[in-house]
Design a protein that fits this description.
Layout lengths: L7 H17 L3 H9 L6 H8 L3 H15 L14 H21 L4 H11 L6 H14 L2 H12 L5 E4 L15 E5 L4 E5 L7 E2 L10 E11 L1 H5 L13 E5 L9 E15 L12 E5 L12 E5 L2 E4 L9 E2 L5 E2 L3 H6 L1 H32 L1 E2 L9 E2 L4 H36 L6 H29 L1 H5 L5 H8 L9 H20 L14 H4 L11 H6 L1 H31 L9 H5 L2 H31 L4 H6 L6 H20 L3 H7 L5 H18 L3 H6 L5 H4 L10 H9 L13 H10 L5
Parallel strand pairs: 1-5, 2-5
Antiparallel strand pairs: 2-3, 3-10, 4-9, 5-7, 6-7, 8-9, 11-12, 13-14
Helix pairs in contact: 4-6, 5-6, 7-8, 11-12, 11-13, 12-13, 12-21, 12-23, 12-25, 13-15, 13-16, 13-21, 16-19, 16-21, 19-21, 19-23, 19-24, 21-23, 23-25
Pfam family, one: Acyl-CoA_ox_N
Subcellular location: Peroxisome
Protein name: Acyl-coenzyme A oxidase
Length: 753
């Protein structure tokens, strides 16, 4: 670049203009520092709660420093990588963490913390998240002894191949088959249709050497063959099919198989020396996606590929050498829900931390971004001081706290279930399965929508990848579909709730989160009315909002049950009151999903209140300092701010989430009470505004973890944008890559004009 000299006359000419600008100029770093001085609670105290104690928080901060100093953990070029660089970089990071775990003798939990901080999903995601857990939970002791050392040493890399082009949530509809050949004691994996092609498994495209393949188990049915292809008393899940035996047509012996439904099989996909696909295996990457492009999601089909009988996962169901099917014990069919419930509980937990990252970025930026001066010569206003901005971000802040407490509670519930399962007790499983399903749906909807709202609130700079928000959204939004489509998850919850309601009506009390249905008659009686006498009741008396959400949930469940009952009676000619399938069910899914959502919103809020009460009670007991450092106690001022957040979460659901409309419709709430609710909602925005930045600081995300120019902890957002932008590959030269062959010829033509 040519030397640019500025003479004194030019400096003197500019000086008065610069003074005018500086008279109203503000430094964003000072704005953020000022916001922190407004805190009415102990930020560190709340950080310990949100990070499970002082020790774990300090470990996260230490790991962030360590990771930032490694070549594979460096994030400075993350937003400028192309697809191939993303894929390779993510694998390097995964292997870097694995090597660090070995060399420094770190625990698996430490490695998972590092994985979260690096935030670079790659080809090992399903090896860690599904392949190994499948072997551990479904493999026999002998299979675990064989495969687990190979997995942990990365001698093999696995994935989990279930979803197909034509089938996702409906697992029983999978079309990949595993047909047993008892002469060779092998299974033949085959993809008989285009739609049976496995599609989406992470790591399948270019990384995995093996997969747990979910395929329909087909076993020879000689009795059916002798009887002409059918027999009485077919075993559960078994349909019979016929085919010509190889080597003849017509008049020969017919091969008959029975379908035992989907089971898991370990299949080798690639040669361990060359990494090329094995014969009969067609495999590849499915191409670019809306996000998550560092992961090589893949496709897979089989053309009569043989695997040993021992590769069927046989901890529960088994196939003997002579082809006899041994079903799992009834208790194990319940135990198999454990992995599913754990994954969904973990998704709920992650929804809170992910939304919290987005809210941290957006709140910090809104606190330092200024726009529009009230009058000439005055400073522009902070964007967060505009009510519409606060009305977007502060309810999302409240939601991030609600989801965080719900995530912790779900993991506690899961651990309690594990203890019960080990004792052979499964009484609480239906409730836990229903709750984890509905909360998986609601929490991922809230988080995904919230991240996008945060991006929009950040204006033009939010559209830049350097804000961190586009990538956060693109990588997270898959959660509304992954591990069960959210609408299907809600329907599972609705089925449980309606069965619980029917049980109550038949004299069987509901338990757990559905216990409020025991009082449904009094709850929905004409005399049941909202007790709110003024706006202060909504904001300052938690029981008032909790009662309103409980009423909304009860009303939604009863309404869904009534529509289902009417449809069931009509479809069955009056013989069946409740049909949980077919046309009666399918034609009422809107009401059913609404009931599940209302139930889960009530549970979220009640869990929020219960968590605050527990923390405050511990803060009032002895050994307070130790309890605070353990993240299990808070002081009065901190509890007060948390109650404001819980109130805002509830009123947001009632005032803008649609819950209030239902309460007006059935007369539970009057028009005057609806107006006072709105006043209380706006009042909470004002009350929480001074604590907005301290409340996001309490999440204690490091700058390394956020990787955001707008969410920097020092507030220096504009310098951050410039510094990160300078790293763009397009800035490697001043002319740019189009100059030699595209731009120069066009611009050179000007001399001919």
């Amino acid at each position: 670049m040519a030397e640019h000299e500025i003479d004194e006359r030019t400096r003197n000419l500019q000086r008065p203009a610069t003074e005018i600008i500086m008279s109203t100029h503000t430094e964003p770093s000072e704005d953020l520092a000022q916001e922190r001085r407004k805190a009415t609670f102990d930020v560190q105290e709340l950080s310990y709660v949100l990070n499970e104690g002082k020790d774990l928080l300090e470990k996260k901060q230490l790991f962030a420093e360590l990771l930032a100093s490694t070549p594979w953990g460096d994030k400075s070029r993350r937003y400028f990588l192309d697809r191939e660089e993303e894929y390779v970089g993510a694998l390097r990071a995964a292997f870097g963490i694995w090597e660090k775990m070995k060399s420094e003798k770190l625990s698996v939990e430490d490695a998972m913390i590092m994985r979260t901080l690096v935030d670079f999903p790659g080809g090992l995601e399903l090896h860690i998240g599904m392949f190994i857990p499948s072997v551990m939970s479904q493999g026999s002791p002998e299979q675990q002894a064989k495969w687990m050392p190979l997995c942990t040493k990365l001698n093999v890399i696995g994935t989990y191949a279930q979803t197909e082009l034509g089938h996702g949530t409906f697992v029983r509809g999978l079309e990949t088959t595993a047909t047993y050949d008892k002469e060779t004691q092998e299974f033949v994996l085959h993809s008989p249709t285009l739609t049976s092609t496995k599609w989406w498994p992470g790591g399948l495209g270019k990384t995995a050497t093996h997969a747990v393949v979910m395929a329909r188990l087909m076993l020879p049915d000689e009795d059916a063959g002798a009887a002409g292809g059918s027999r009485e008393g077919e075993e559960e899940g078994g349909s019979v099919g016929e085919g010509e035996e190889e080597g003849g047509s017509g008049g020969g012996h017919r091969t008959v198989v029975r379908d035992y439904g989907p089971h898991g099989f370990i299949a080798e996909l690639r040669d361990l020396d060359t990494h090329l696909p094995l014969p009969g295996v067609t495999i590849g990457d499915i191409g670019p996606k809306a996000g998550f492009n560092s992961v090589d999601n893949g496709y897979l089909s089989f053309d009569h590929v043989r695997i040993p009988r021992e590769n069927m996962l046989m901890r529960f169901a088994k196939v003997t050498p002579n082809g006899r099917y041994v079903p799992p014990p009834p208790s194990n069919s319940k135990a198999s829900y454990a992995t599913m419930v754990f994954v969904r509980a973990d998704i709920v937990k992650n929804s809170g931390s992910t939304l919290a990252r987005a809210v941290t970025i957006a709140v910090r930026y809104a606190a330092v971004r200024r726009q529009t001066a009230p009058a000439p010569g005055e400073r522009e206003l902070q964007v967060l001081d505009y009510q519409n901005c606060a009305a977007t971000l502060l309810p999302l802040l409240a939601s991030s706290y609600a989801l965080s407490f719900m995530g912790a509670a779900m993991m506690e519930r899961y651990r309690a279930f594990e203890a019960e399962r080990d004792r052979g007790e499964f009484g609480g499983l239906p409730e836990l399965h229903a709750l984890s399903s509905g909360l998986k749906a609601l929490c991922t909807w809230i988080a995904a929508d919230g991240i996008e709202e945060c991006r929009r609130t950040c204006g033009g700079h939010g559209y830049s990848k350097l804000s961190g928000l586009p990538t956060l959204f693109q990588n997270y939004v898959q959660n509304v579909t992954w591990e069960g489509d959210n609408n299907v998850m809600c329907l599972q919850t609705a089925r449980y709730l309606i069965k619980a309601l029917v049980g109550v009506q038949q004299g069987k009390p509901a338990t757990g989160s559905a216990a409020y249905l025991n009082q449904v008659s009094s709850e929905l009686s004409p005399s049941s009315r909202c007790p709110a006498a003024c706006s202060d009741c909504w904001a300052g008396q938690p029981a008032v909002a909790a009662a309103a959400l409980r009423h909304a949930a009860a009303r939604a469940v009863v309404a869904a049950a009534e529509t289902l009952r009417s449809a069931s009676l009509a479809a069955s000619g009056g013989t069946r009151q409740m049909v949980f399938e077919g046309r009666p069910w399918n034609e009422n899914t809107v009401e059913l999903i609404r009931a599940a959502k209302a139930h889960c919103i009530y549970v979220l809020h009640q869990t929020f209140l219960d968590s605050i009460a527990r923390l405050e009670a511990a803060g009032a007991a002895g050994e307070v300092e130790a309890a605070v450092e353990a993240g299990s106690a808070v002081s009065g001022p901190t509890a007060a701010v948390l109650r404001q957040l819980a109130a805002l979460f509830a009123l947001e659901q009632l005032e803008r989430g649609g819950g209030g409309a239902a309460l007006l419709e059935d007369g539970y709430m009057s028009a005057a009470q609806a107006a006072s609710l709105r006043v209380a909602h706006r009042g909470l925005l004002t009350a929480l505004r001074p604590n907005a930045v301290p409340l996001v600081d309490a999440f204690a995300f490091t700058d390394y973890h956020l990787n955001s120019a707008l969410g920097r902890s020092d507030g220096d957002v504009y310098r951050g944008l410039l510094e990160m932008a300078r790293g763009s590959p397009l800035n490697a030269t001043q002319e740019g890559p189009a100059w030699p062959e595209v731009l120069r010829p066009v611009l050179a033509a000007r001399s001919k004009l």
